[in-house]
Specification:
Length: 85
């Protein structure tokens, strides 16, 4: 069954828009990390005073959350006929 017409016409699912959004997101993220060069860092724990700390810390935290969610999904997974019993 093909998707409804309204979904096909949505600007967020067009390949050109998706490519444009990726480019914009990458430019904004790169500009944020580059702006970190011009900020005086006053870290409290040493490592949090390094350049780009919050960028890679956020990325590693996100990756950790994805792995934790996948592990939790494996633990909580139920058989396909769980509700049919």
């Amino acid at each position: 069954m093909p998707p409804p017409k309204a979904i096909e016409d949505n600007w967020l699912v067009r390949p050109r828009t998706i490519r444009w959004l990726w480019i914009v997101f990458i430019v904004v993220l790169a500009a944020t990390v580059l702006a970190d060069l011009f900020i005086a860092h006053h870290g409290k724990f040493g490592i949090d005073g390094t350049m780009g700390f919050y960028a890679w810390y956020g990325f590693l935290s996100c990756v950790g959350l994805v792995f934790a969610a996948r592990a939790l999904g494996v633990i909580l997974k139920r058989p396909a006929d769980y509700y049919d019993r």
